[in-house]
Amino acid sequence: GLERGAKNQFSTFSNFITSINQKKEGIGNRNSPTQLVIPNIKNVRDLPPICLDVRQKQRISIDTLPQELKAPIPPEPSLPIRTKTVKDFQDDVEKSKSSGDWKAVHDFYSTTFDSFLEINAAFKKDTNSPFNTIEDSGINAKFVNVVYDALLNTPQDVQKSVLKGIINGLLQEWKGPRTKDDLRAYCILLQNPQFSNTSTYVIYAHLLRQIAALTEADHHFLVHWSKKISQRRFKQLVDRLLQFISLRLFPAKPEEFPPMVKCTWWIPSATKVLALFNAANSLISPPIISYTDFYNSTLDHIDLMEEYHNWQCYGNSHRFSFCQYPFIISIAAKKVIIQRDSEQQMISIARQSLVDKVSRRQKPDMNMLFLNVKVRRTHLVSDSLDELARKRADLKKKLKVTFVGEAGLDMGGLTKEWFLLLIRQIFHPDYGMFTYHKDSHCHWFSSFKCDNYSEFRLVGALMGLAVYNSITLDIRFPPCCYKKLLSPPIVPCDHNTLVGISDVTLDDLFQIMPELAHGLSELLSYEGNVEEDFYSTFQVFQEEFGVIKSYNLKPNGDKIPVTNQNRKEYVQLYIDFLLNKSIYKQFAAFYYGFHSVCASYALLLLRPEEVEILVCGSPELDMSALQRSTQYEGYQKTDLTIRYFWDVVLGFSLDLQKKLLHFATGSDRVPVGGMADLNFKISKSETSTNWLPVAHTCFNQLCLPPYKNKKELKQKLIIGISNAEGFGLE
């Protein structure tokens, strides 16, 4: 019976997802969101994308909207008159607690939740006002919170009466489109704390199914209303949905739920409703909760590659995949997908090379299975540039580095050193490719014009190789860089399409040039006469090799004064010039370099912040976590030498701790999965205690002689980690 009124299989939901933030292609409208046209609704704003459609990019217009969006808003039915206030209710609860007679409270709950009309009668701020805009849901949030906070402390018969009323509401036969009162009821019911209990999951699932099956316009209202929920309540709603998904995937007591084959719609429904909250969270800056609060770590234990392949094969069709909703997949799980996708590409490319060799009747060579980079330390950048340019067809093979004149064998350690030295040299201020901004402690692309941008392509390829080969880099780009790197996430087939152009804001500029951003912010808030006091035009100036050059922000910009009326346009054009136009060729080369290695649909799963974590790892060092996860060979963790070691390391300064991490692993950054993912090992070295410690960076292994006391260990360890460049074989 519960399935009546919920037969809809979300036919318009996928369309809603792909239409709310469509991107225009071309120069004139770079990535500007398409306006969602809804009749009779004022101040409708675009939503951020709820999930991705990699195969279909289309403009939405009133002609292509589903019939539900064109239909006039149905009249709201008249509501019963309910006069109980928050104080009245609280008084009733207190009286019931003291007397033990819960009749008044029971009557209130059973009446209020008996139907959607009664829910609105109780919780609508003004029953005579329509509240049919996205700006105000009309819900008396304080009253809702008080009623729900008291509910779990009432007798069982009261709680059962609420659930019975919700079932009645869900069983209602629906004719025509939903009213705003219906949407208000859904919004209120979602906040019911009873749905944290697995015994209510059947009812909760049907509620989620009906919400997921609503029209695009209805979802639009729910998203905007949800962003007004307090942070604590919002987090509770998200956690409840994540718990529902986790327990349906891996139930503690399978007998509590119907068989999976009879409720395959449970997880898709919950995920689609969760997507609405994710969209609401993205509408606010700063967001209500962190994007990581939407991660469901339970998904780390399912067959992610099957999910990924289903998504690749079926896209956003009616076949559900968690990859349609990447916000729910943790960065650790996304890293696994990217790594396995990379490995499959490596194997495919290597196999093709082998087949080509055999078909030409040539003897196979093991080196053909790798991207072999041979460089001289004295000519590091030029040799690397030449090698990568010559071996462009091999970029997707496993990387192997050789330093000319050195006997080191690359099992991963030489690769890490090559990345480290190359990045250090390229980003040096004297090299001129990047400008270091001291205020923001980050690098940005130099706007100096040059004849050849191949070195920017090299840096992009390096970043791509790092992600592809699971190497973390010590690169300090602002978040804006990674947003541009995913604009678009898949290289367009049309080479005339602009790449690396993103919608940039004053916040983006603050992350790079905070002083200039502050000045522009002051201009926007200036209360005097901007034209007379600032005497500026739509023209900016930049110094290039000692020569001051001028650039118009718009045609004839040098003749257009900045005024109180057009200053917002001036600031936006100035930011766009600094972060997009003035460095377009540099960043385009960087973009193509990165995607020449990392061309994968898996990039569509990533947020800019997640790309940064994959490239750079985390700078936060937790040596206590490293101590807990360290493995030992020849030592026990209770041995005196090991105890000396950790006493010394935990007492090191941050700089020395980073040097130790770099000495032992080849990088001073922490990988995505934290210290435990390093698989750090301390082995006993049977050499003389006069020797320094030795590291095998390929295996994240430290070989430690059994030093006799803490002072000697500290002295030898500091000498070793402070002089750690170059490789040799014993």
Describe this structure in words.
InterPro entries: E3A/B/C-like (IPR044611), HECT_dom (IPR000569), Hect_E3_ubiquitin_ligase (IPR035983). The active site is at residue 698. Its EC number is 2.3.2.26. It catalyses: S-ubiquitinyl-[E2 ubiquitin-conjugating enzyme]-L-cysteine + [acceptor protein]-L-lysine = [E2 ubiquitin-conjugating enzyme]-L-cysteine + N(6)-ubiquitinyl-[acceptor protein]-L-lysine. The protein has helices spanning 13-19, 67-70, 86-99, 103-112, 116-123, 141-151, 156-170, 180-190, 201-212, 216-226, 231-249, 266-282, 304-314, 331-359, 380-390, 413-426, 454-468, 479-485, 506-510, 514-525, 530-534, 567-579, 584-597, 608-616, 623-629, 640-650, 654-665, 710-722; strands at 370-375, 398-403, 434-437, 442-445, 539-544, 547-552, 631-633, 681-684, 694-696, 701-704. Among the domains are: 86-294, no CATH class; 339-485, Hect, E3 ligase catalytic domains (Hect, E3 ligase catalytic domain fold); 623-723, Hect, E3 ligase catalytic domain (Hect, E3 ligase catalytic fold, 2-Layer Sandwich). Helix 10 packs across helix 12 and helix 17 (454-468) packs parallel to helix 23 (584-597). 45% of the residues lie in helices and 6% in strands. The longest helix is centred in the middle third of the chain and has 29 residues, at 331-359. It contains 28 helices and 10 strands. It is globular. It is an alpha/beta fold and 730 residues long. The protein starts with 12 loop residues before the first helix and ends in an 8-residue tail after the last helix.
